[in-house]
Structures are given as C-alpha cells and as structure tokens.
Automatic annotation (TrEMBL):
Organism: Pseudomonas luteola
Root EC class: hydrolase
Keywords, ordered alphabetically: Hydrolase, Signal
Gene: lytM
Record-annotated M23ase beta-sheet core domain positions: 181-275
Protein name (record): M23 family metallopeptidase
PANTHER family on file: PEPTIDASE M23 (PTHR21666:SF294), PEPTIDASE-RELATED (PTHR21666)
Lineage of the organism: Bacteria, Pseudomonadati, Pseudomonadota, Gammaproteobacteria, Pseudomonadales
Length: 302
C-alpha cells in the first residue's frame, strides 16, 4: 500500500502558539484590580505556569514588574504607545529576559512634568527564551543525524489508523519557520489526544468556539527537559483536562481532537519547536513507530 497521505482531505493552516498579548489604556488596566499592588503590598501569586505584568505605585513612579511562574525563562516585551508626560522608557519598547519562577522590575515610568497626569497605552507579550540552537544538545536540528539520535515521540493520539493530510514542508501552510515540520493528522472530532513526551504543561486554551478568534483554536503546549516544546492544536472546546504547570508523562490524556481555530475539518496539528532568541521555530522529529507506510514526514518526504 502506498503512502497514507490522504488525497481526499484538505490541509489545514498552521497557527502559531498564542503567547499572551493584551492592549490597554492607562485607565483600563492590563491586570485586574485585585492584582494592582502598592509598594508595600506583595502581588498575589498566579497559578503555576502563568506570566503577568504588574503595575506598582512607588515613590519614584509607576514600576512595571513581570512575574514569571513558568518553569522556563521567558523574554517579555512591553510596548508603550500614545504616551503623554511619560519618561524613563526611551523609545517605548521594553524587552527583558525574566528567569524561571521569579519576578523582575523591567521599567519605572516617571512623569516628565510633575503636577500633570501621565497617560499611555501598552501591549504586553512573552515567549520562552532559549539560546539559538538549543535543542537538547543535538547540534543542527535539521540534520538526519540529529533526528535519528533525537527523541522518538510516541503517537499523540489513541485509535486510528488515521491519515496524514499535510506533512513537513506542506505547500498549503507548513512553509514558515514556526510550522515547517508540523504534521496535520485527520481524525474524527473527539479522538483522545495524549502527551507524546513527558514534560510540563506551560500553556493551554480551552474556551474557544468554532473558528475564531485565535487561529490555533484550543491547544496544549508542553515544555520538555531538553528545552524543546510540543504543541497540540485545534482541540475540542472544553476537552482539555490538564492545567498549566502540571507535570505529564508519555501517554497522559491531554484533550480531545477538534475543529477549532483556522481549520477546515476535524484534525490534530502536532509540532515540535525550539526557541531561537525570543522566537519559536519548528524542528524535525520522528515518531517511535511508523505511521502506516508514510515516509519520514519530518524530513519532508513525499
């Protein structure tokens, strides 16, 4: 039997992981009032796995601090716009690396003229930070030797057999650095999705309806011990059963497959990524056992 790549099924567009982003006016805070703290108050801890921006009132001005409750360092970016009477932030772009499980002051906003109000809009984003090429010490992650010597992932689903509707370097959507080596697996909605490798859940989305607003739909993202991550996208709404910060092992139930986000049919989008600076790029990988007679799609085979 020739390869199981389905010619009857459409491919689905890769959607990048949605690291937290928010935009606000000075009068409508990025964080809830319960999280607004003064210099003498300790910010309330967020559930394990979160990253948040805090605004603290100090004698010197408004201090912006980032609390990273994730088990990995993150690169955070704060962009200020429409500033009025705001000093101490240069061109308005603040970028810092915040160590794992720590809190760091990234800027102190000061009034240029005392006696006048200070106003600004801000956008906050973050992503895991790793040194370029970090991926478990495998050297060039795109080489055949690296893939062969690298971790062999268990199948991230139960049941089947299922068809691969789009593999690596797929013309439809797998042609960008963040998704070049992703795989789309066509499967009925509600198929059990399980962890393909042990690690720590660092981000989930479980509430999205249908095909918007996030192109990723509902998803689970897992951080592995070697600094790589695996992501499971387009999951069924309300089916995610793990929480951020939870340790999982191979085969741990994560969710059910779905058809949420930018998807044209029920399927699972699975990708392995590593950090390069403050960006995530996909890397080749291999499964521990063959998927039918499909060639090694992680190498872009046809």
């Amino acid at each position: 039997m020739r390869y199981l790549c389905s010619a009857l099924l459409t491919s689905w567009l890769l959607a990048s992981p949605t690291w937290a982003m928010a935009e606000q006016s000075k009068e409508t805070s990025l964080i809830s009032k319960a999280d607004q703290t003064s210099l003498t108050e300790k910010p309330r801890a967020k559930r394990k796995g979160g990253v948040r921006l805090l605004t603290l009132n100090t004698k010197a001005g408004k201090a912006l601090e980032v609390r990273n409750d994730m088990d990995v360092p993150v690169t955070v970016t704060v962009r200020l716009s429409r500033t009025v009477n705001v000093g101490g932030v240069g061109n308005g772009v603040i970028r810092q690396t915040v160590p794992a499980n720590s809190q760091l002051r990234v800027a102190t906003l000061q009034k240029r003229q005392q006696g006048f109000p200070m106003h600004y809009d801000q956008a906050f984003s973050f992503s895991p930070h790793f040194a370029p090429g970090s991926g478990g010490g495998l050297g060039n992650p795109n080489s055949l030797a690296s893939i062969t010597a690298g971790y062999a992932y268990s199948l991230p689903w139960q049941g089947g057999p299922f068809f691969i509707s789009q593999g690596a370097n797929g013309d439809f959507s797998h042609h960008t650095p963040k998704g070049r080596y992703a795989v789309d697996v066509a499967m009925p909605e509600g198929t059990p999705v399980v962890a393909a490798r042990s690690g720590t859940v660092i981000e989930i989305q479980n509430r999205q309806f249908g095909h918007g607003p996030s192109p990723s739909g509902n998803f689970v993202r897992i951080q592995h011990d070697d600094g790589t991550q695996s992501a499971y996208l387009h999951l069924k709404r309300g089916s995610v059963v793990v929480r951020e910060g939870q340790k999982v092992t191979t085969g741990t139930p994560l969710a059910q497959s779905g058809n949420t986000g930018r998807s044209t049919g029920p399927h699972l989008h699975f990708v392995v990524q590593q950090g390069e600076g403050d960006a995530l790029v996909s890397i080749p990988f291999r499964f521990a056992r063959p998927v039918g007679e499909l060639p090694n799609f992680a190498l872009g085979g046809q």
